[in-house]
Amino acid sequence: MEHQSQKAILVVSFGTSYEASRKATIEIIEQDIADAFPDYRIYHAWTSKFIISVLKKRDGISIPTMCEAIEQMIHDGIRTLIVQPTHILDGIENNVMKETVLSYKDSFDQIVFGAPLLAASDDETHAIAAVTSEFKNLKATDALVLMGHGTTHQINTAYSELDRHFKSLGHSNVFIGTVEADPTIQDLVQEVTEFHPTAIYLTPFMIVAGDHAHHDMAGNSPDSWVGQFHAAGFEVCPVIKGLGEYAGIRAIFIEHIKKAISMLH
């Protein structure tokens, strides 16, 4: 049997400069993974070099980059590597991450990747269950608006698909838009207005509640999502909570790691 210290799970996140959100999301995800896979050494890395440098300068906290984490694992004698991203979609960020890891493939016996959050229809169903149970006290007349990140990658259509999936499961009061792609906040204001909600709850559909949640979503500027829904005449309640805080979301990542481990030979 392989010695346990030769097997590792590398948890890869974009990162966040918000300490409270980091502790409530990324660190809890990593802890859940460590608890679920005691035979594996757990490593982590962030892909945002900018956020890594902010934490280093501001808080004296060192988070490894992808390359630093992989070089540390090679140094520690890791031979079998499972890489689990906390990304939502298999977009640009995830593809660059995979390329980086595979550039070290000669240093490992095996490398397998766990899927990002939404990789299959089942994942969507589980994510929908996690979100709706979190907002189970929402009235049928209230709208829940989810803020996705959005990407120029063709995978961006996943947001519209998820929106349809929510509605097909009977959640006609849930709407999804993105900060950086389609559907836009303008699309959402139009769609939600047609729904005639009594109140609107806004929350990020992102692993962490960072800059986008605090500024683009809940900021004081008239351009923020709160500002635009206010301008359209609605009562708005922002809920600043990253998806990483939802036990049902973290469970999806655990399942993806189990699936990845089953691919090892």
TrEMBL record:
It is an enzyme of class 4 (lyase). Its EC number is 4.99.1.3. Keywords: Cobalt, Lyase, Metal-binding. Co(2+) binds at residues 149, 180, 212. The keyword Lyase applies. Transmembrane segments: none annotated. The active site is at residue 149. GO terms for biological process: anaerobic cobalamin biosynthetic process. GO terms for molecular function: metal ion binding; sirohydrochlorin cobaltochelatase activity. It comes from the Bacteria. This is Anaerobic cobaltochelatase.
